[in-house]
Amino acid sequence: MSATPEGKIKAKVKLLLKAFNVYQHWPVLRGEGSPTLDCNACAGGYYFTIETKAEGKRPTARQQITMGEARAAGAFVFVVSDDESLLRLKCYLEILLAPDFRGA
C-alpha cells in the first residue's frame, strides 16, 4: 500500500473491515465503465460503500454524484479521512453486526 496520506487511510479501513470479517472490494479504475467509490462492502446482508480521502480533502463532484446514486439505491455511504470518521465506520459495523440488530 502506498505511503501517501490517502494510502494510510485506506490501510486503516482495510484492517478495520478485515477485523469485522466484512466482504470488501477495492476496484481499480482505469477510466472505463461506470464510476464507483474506493471500496464496495457488505456485512450482515447490508451493502455500503466507502470513499477514502487524505485528511482535509473532500470528495470530487463526480464522487458526490456517485455517492448520491448509491444512497438513492439504499446504500450507506462513508467518507473516511481521519480517525474520527474511521470511528464512525467502526460504530456502524458494531451496531450492524450486533446480535440484537440482526435478530440472532
Please characterize this protein's 3D structure.
This protein has 104 residues and is an alpha+beta fold. The protein has a single domain, classed as Trna Endonuclease, Chain: A, domain 1. It has a four-stranded mixed β-sheet, with helices on both faces. The longest helix is centred in the N-terminal third of the chain and has 15 residues.
Strand and helix layout:
Elements lengths: L4 H15 L3 E3 L13 E5 L2 E7 L8 H12 L3 E5 L2 H14 L2 H4 L2
Parallel strand pairs: 3-4
Antiparallel strand pairs: 1-2, 2-3
Q: What does the main sheet amount to?
A: 4 strands, mixed
Instruction: State the helical fraction.
Output: 40-55%
User: Unreliable segments (pLDDT under 50, ≥5 consecutive)?
Assistant: none
Mean pLDDT: 92
Please give the radius of gyration in angstroms.
Answer: 14 Å
Overall domain count: 1
CATH architecture label? 3-Layer(aba) Sandwich
Q: What is the number of strand segments?
A: 4
Output the CATH topology.
Trna Endonuclease, Chain: A, domain 1
Seen as an oligomer or otherwise, the chain set is single chain
Shape: globular
Q: Which structural class best describes the helix and strand composition?
A: alpha+beta
**Spatial sequence of strands, sheet with the most strands:** 1-2-3-4
- Our estimate of the beta-strand percent is 15-25%
CATH class bucket:
Alpha Beta
